[in-house]
C-alpha cells in the first residue's frame, strides 16, 4: 500500500539528529529521501558510539546505534559541495526533487549557490526547510546551537530536576527531536500548499523556538501569573497527586487527574476522610497544600507492594504505572503489540537483521512502511545518479575521479 508521501522526493542535506529525524519521518510516510553525505566522512553520527553494529564475525562496524535511529528509509549518496562539479550536480538533483532539507549554519549554503534565495526563482515549487540552533533571524542567528544549549536557554532544564537540586537536561535530545517533528509537520503543510497553489516556500525551524514551545504549561503558568516556576522533581505543577511514590518494594507513578479520581484513590487506599477534607477535596486545594497531601499519599502507599497498588488502582480506573528501564520497555506486552521494535536486514551485519525503534504513526489507510534499513555511506550513489540524471558508469567514474562524489 503506497504511503501518503509516495512520489515526493527529498534532497536531504542534514546530519546528526534534528534534520535526519525529520527526514526519517518523511521517509516512513513514503517519501524518497536522498541523503547527501560528504565523501570520506559521511554523517557525523556514524561514529557516535559505541555501540556499533557488529559484522558477521562479531567485530564493530562503522555504523553506530545513534546513526541507525534516524536514517532508515533513505538512500545515501556521497557528494562534495566543495567541488564545482558537485555543486552543479546538486542543482541538477534538486531540479528532480520536491523538498530540500538542510541544517547548515546560517548562510553557509550560499557559498555553494544553494541558499533558498539563490534557488527560489529557478525552482519556484521547491519546499526548502532550514533547521538551525537559533533560526535565520535575531542576534544569535549565526551562532551554532546544539540540543544541550537549547534545553538550557529554552527553559526546560529550569523545570527538570529534583526539588532543591540542580537543573537537569532531559535524558534524550528532546530539542533535536522536537525540532525534527515540527520540521516534518511544516513540510507536510507546505506540500499541501504547493499542491493547491503550485508554489513552494521557505521554512525556518530553530531548536530554541521549538524548545520554548515545549515549555507548554510551565511557560503558561509564568505568563499567566508572573511567577517563575522551579524544580519539582517528578511532581506536576498543576495537579496533585501526580508524581512518583514509594511502595513497600519499589516505586510507582500515580497520576490522579481529577477530584473524582482522588476520591476513588482515597477509598481504595483506606483513607476516605482525606478526600472529604476541604484542604484536599479539590485539586486547587491540593496544589496549595502539595507537601501535606503528598506526604499522606506517600505514607499510605509505602505500606503495600507495587503489585497491590497496580492491580487495585487499575481496577478503579486511576492512572498508574511502573518506571521501566530500556530492556523492560521493549519487553512490555503493550509495546510489543504496538510494534515499537522492528527489525531490518542491514549490509553492515552481513544482511542479518538489526533492531530499530518503530514509528509511532498508526494510519489505517496509508500506514508507514519500512522499506530500507539505514544506508551505508554512499551505498546508492551510482544507482541514484543513473536513475535521476541518466548518468552512465563512465560519467559516474569521471565525477568520482574529480572528487565530486
A few lines on this structure:
By secondary structure, this protein is an alpha/beta fold.
SSE layout and pairings?
Layout: E1 9-13, H1 18-28, E2 32-37, E3 52-54, E4 60-64, H2 65-68, E5 74-78, H3 84-94, E6 99-102, H4 116-119, E7 127-132, H5 147-153, H6 174-197, E8 201-206, H7 207-213, H8 216-225, E9 242-246, E10 251-255, H9 259-269, H10 272-276, H11 283-288, H12 290-301, H13 306-315, E11 319-321, H14 326-331, H15 333-337, E12 341-345, E13 353-357, H16 381-389, H17 393-401
Parallel strand pairs: 1-2, 1-6, 2-5, 6-7, 7-8
Antiparallel strand pairs: 3-4, 9-10, 10-11, 12-13
Structural summary, described in words:
This protein has 17 helices and 13 strands. The chain has 405 residues and is α/β, with parallel strands linked by helices. The chain has two domains: 274 residues, Rossmann fold, CATH 3.40.50; 83 residues, formyl-coa transferase, domain 3 (2-Layer Sandwich). Strand 3 and strand 4 form a beta hairpin. Helix 6 packs across helix 7. It starts with 8 loop residues before the first strand and ends with a helix.
Amino acid at each position: 500500500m503506497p504511503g501518503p508521501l509516495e512520489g515526493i522526493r527529498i534532497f536531504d542535506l542534514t546530519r546528526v539528529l534534528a534534520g535526519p529525524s525529520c527526514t526519517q519521518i518523511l521517509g516512513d510516510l513514503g517519501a524518497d529521501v536522498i541523503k547527501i553525505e560528504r565523501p570520506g566522512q559521511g554523517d557525523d553520527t556514524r561514529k557516535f558510539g559505541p555501540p556499533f553494529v557488529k559484522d558477521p564475525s562479531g567485530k564493530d562496524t562503522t555504523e553506530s546505534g545513534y546513526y541507525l535511529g534516524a536514517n532508515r528509509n533513505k538512500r545515501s549518496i556521497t557528494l562534495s559541495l566543495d567541488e564545482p562539479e558537485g555543486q552543479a550536480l546538486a542543482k541538477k538533483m534538486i531540479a528532480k526533487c520536491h523538498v530540500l532539507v538542510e541544517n547548515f549554519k546560517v548562510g553557509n549554503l550560499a557559498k555553494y549557490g544553494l541558499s533558498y534565495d539563490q534557488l527560489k526563482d529557478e525552482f519556484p515549487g521547491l519546499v526548502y526547510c532550514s533547521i538551525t540552533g537559533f533560526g535565520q533571524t535575531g542576534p544569535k542567528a549565526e551562532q551554532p546551537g546544539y540540543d544541550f544549549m537549547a534545553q538550557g536557554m529554552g527553559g526546560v532544564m529550569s523545570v527538570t530536576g529534583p526539588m532543591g537540586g540542580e537543573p537537569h537536561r532531559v535524558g534524550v535530545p528532546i530539542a533535536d527531536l522536537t525540532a525534527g517533528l515540527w520540521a516534518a509537520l511544516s513540510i507536510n503543510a507546505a506540500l499541501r500548499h504547493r499542491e493547491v497553489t503550485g508554489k513552494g516556500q521557505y521554512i525556518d525551524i530553530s531548536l530554541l523556538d521549538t524548545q520554548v514551545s515545549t515549555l507548554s504549561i510551565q511557560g503558561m503558568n509564568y505568563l499567566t501569573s508572573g511567577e517563575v516556576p522551579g524544580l519539582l522533581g517528578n511532581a506536576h505543577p498543576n495537579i496533585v497527586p501526580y508524581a512518583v511514590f514509594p511502595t513497600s518494594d519499589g516505586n510507582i507513578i500515580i497520576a490522579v487527574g481529577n477530584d473524582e479520581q482522588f476520591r476513588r484513590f482515597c477509598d481504595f487506599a483506606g483513607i476516605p476522610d482525606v478526600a472529604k477534607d476541604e484542604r484536599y477535596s479539590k485539586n486547587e486545594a491540593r496544589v496549595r497544600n502539595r507537601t501535606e497531601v503528598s506526604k499522606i499519599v506517600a505514607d499510605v502507599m509505602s505500606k503495600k507492594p507495587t503489585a497491590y497498588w497496580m492491580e487495585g488502582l487499575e481496577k478503579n480506573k486511576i492512572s498508574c504505572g511502573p518506571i521501566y528501564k530500556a530492556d523492560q520497555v521493549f519487553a512490555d506486552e503493550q509495546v510489543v503489540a504496538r510494534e515499537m521494535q522492528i527489525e531490518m536486514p542491514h549490509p553492515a551485519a552481513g544482511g542479518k537483521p538489526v533492531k530499530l525503534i518503530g514509528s509511532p504513526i498508526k494510519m489505517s489507510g496509508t500506514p508507514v512502511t519500512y522499506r530500507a534499513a539505514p544506508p551505508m555511506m554512499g551505498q546508492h550513489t551510482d544507482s541514484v545518479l543513473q536513475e535521476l540524471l541518466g548518468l552512465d558508469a563512465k560519467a559516474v567514474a569521471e565525477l568520482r575521479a574529480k572528487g565530486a562524489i
